Amino acid sequence: MRPLKIGFAFSTKDRVDFTRRSLAGIDACGGFDLVWVDGSDTPEGKALPESAKPRNCRIVEVHHNVKGGPDAAICFGLRRLLQRGYDYCGLIENDIGFKPGWFPKLMELFEFGKQDGLEVGAVTARSVESRVLVHRPGYVIKWNVGAGIVLFTREAAQIVLANYGADTASELAQYYHRKFALDLRGVWEFYMLGPNHLHGCDWTYAKSLYEHGLSSLGTVPSLAFNMDLDFEKVLCTSYVNASPGVTEEDGRRFSYLLNELSRARGSSRRRRRASMIWYAAAGRFLAGRMHKRRVRQLTHPFNSAKLLLSRFKVRYPDQGA
Q1: Which of 135, 140, 137 shows the shortest CA–CA distance to 122?
Q2: What pTM was computed for the model?
C-alpha cells in the first residue's frame, strides 16, 4: 500500500515578513508538500518563493502572478492539488503562525473522528471558541473551519470547489439553527457587520461538507494562530486553549449531529447514484441515436455509393460542379 500523499496550497501576497514567519512554523514539521501560490506585486514578494529553502517539507511547485483575490488563489491551489493526485488537499495562508508539532496533531483528528463514528472531511489546527459546534474529548467539531489552515480529504476538496460561494450571516444562522439547533445570535464576530453581511466563502466550507455528511474538526488546544489579528480585541473571541469538558448539551448535540450526518451521507449517496444512473441511461440513449443515424447514413443509397467510390480513391464530384 502506497503512503498517503498530502499537499497544501500556500497562498502568499507580499507581506514578506509574515510569509517568512509562517513558512518557518510550517517547516517545523515534515511529511507533506507545498504548492506555492503567489500573487505578489512587489519585487521582494515575487522573489521570496525562489529563495525559500525549507528543510522538512517540500516545495513541489511555485506559481507566480495568481491574481483575483484570496478565493481565486484558493480555487487555483485546490484544483492544482487535485490534479497532482493528492489524497489530502490543504490550504495555508501566509498570515498564519504555527506551534511545534502542529502537523501530527492535525492528522490525528481523522482518527479521533473515525473512533467517534464521524466521517471527517476537513481538519484544522486553528480552533476558535466562537466557531465551535460541539466539544469532544481531545478535539472540537467546527461550524466554521475557515481557509487560514485547513486540510480536506480529496472528496471534501471536490465538494468545496463544486459548491464554492458565499452566504449572508442570516442564511448561515438559519441553516445551523435548522440543522443542529445551534443559536449563533450571541457570536459577535458573526453578526458584527449586520445580518445581511455577506461572509467570505470560507465560512461556507463546513456547511457544504455537512450537506454531504462530512464533519470538520479542530485540534485542542489550537496549534495555529493569526499573526496579523488579535482575536480577543478585534473579534471578541479566543483560541481554544484547553478542553472545557463535554457538557450535557454537547452530548445531546453530538448525538443529534451523528444522526443528521448519517442522513446526509445517505442522501448524498442516493443523489450520486441517481446521477450515475441518469448519465449512464443518457449515454446509452445518445449512443443508440448516434448508431441509428450512422446506420441510416451508411445504408442510404447516395451515401453508400459515396463510401464505395472513396474506397477506390475515386474523387466524388461536389454537387453543382
Answers
A1: 140
A2: 0.84
